[in-house]
Amino acid sequence: MISLYYILNFVLIGIYPISRIFRLLNFFILDIPDELGTTRENSIFYTIMAFTVIKYLRSYSTLQFLSSLFFTIKVALITSYLFVDIKISLLYAGACLMIFVLCSEPKFNGKTKIQDVEDIKEFEELVGVKFRDNDEGDIIEELNERFKKKQQRKEKSQKILNYKITEMVFAEFYVDWADTCNYTKEIWANFSCKYTTKGLKFISINLAKIPRLAECYRINTSAMSRQLPTVILFEDGEEAQRFPPIDEKTNKIPKVLKYGKKELQSYFDLEKRYLATRDL
């Protein structure tokens, strides 16, 4: 079933060509060519096409691409109506704002094998980690100790990898209000359906429900955070890899321009992990 969000956005976008075809407004000013012979309307829609290509190349899911596309087209239509009649432009902008406020974007609801974690105790059981204390500050102190030990280890390329004797958990840490978390759900769900085995599990943790884990694993959940979502791969209860990565020297997080499916598969070595554990 098509979401109300998509229906309303398609209706909003469809108003313009309908008003054009049936001449409901005076679009004469948009048809005046400039020095290059291009009309204002064509200039606006050439810009839309350029932005659409850029958004498509940078999008990492269908949901993100559609959201960006709707926004770009509506801004262009508000600009077009502004040339025709400022009152119509303001009315159209108000309708766009109303839909944005009252009708939220649909969330990914496709097939997945990701298990939702409800509390720290369940997290302990699934990941295979045991904290000294679930309620006091010991949990943060213990995680900091573990992270320091991890920093002192050699790089992954210098370690001997034996996925067959390793219990692995792919954990997605997210919050509901972050658009990136919503847009990347499709990627993690596809990974879970393709790579889940007895030795490789996929779980998700809503940090709004378990904020203590955000402190434990140093995940910034502020509105300006570059760490949402954070995906951590655990091996026998210990953090082995995370994305976005934290620079161990500067303690900085790089800005992620795109969550590329192939790049993430390679980064986490998911194919080899799956092949090593599928027959367990």
State the total count of DSSP E strands. 5
Mean pLDDT: 82
Strand percent estimate: 5-15%
Radius of gyration: 24 Å
Coarse shape? elongated
In helices, the fraction of residues equals: 40-55%
Order of helices and strands: HHHHEHHEHEHEEHH
Q: Structural class of the helix and strand makeup?
A: alpha/beta
How does this model look, in words?
The chain is of the alpha/beta class. 49% of the residues lie in helices and 10% in strands. It contains ten helices and five strands. The protein has a five-stranded mixed β-sheet with strand order 1-3-2-4-5, with helices on both faces. Helix 1 packs parallel to helix 3, helix 1 packs antiparallel against helix 4 and helix 2 packs antiparallel against helix 3 (62-84). The model is unreliable at 153-160 (pLDDT under 50).
How is the secondary structure organized here?
Layout: H1 4-21, H2 40-58, H3 62-84, H4 86-102, E1 115-117, H5 120-127, H6 138-152, E2 168-174, H7 179-195, E3 200-206, H8 211-216, E4 230-235, E5 238-243, H9 261-267, H10 270-277
Parallel strand pairs: 1-3, 2-3
Antiparallel strand pairs: 2-4, 4-5
Concise overview:
By secondary structure, this protein is α/β, with parallel strands linked by helices. Helix content is 49%, strand content 10%.
Observed structural traits:
alpha/beta, 10 helices, elongated, transmembrane helix
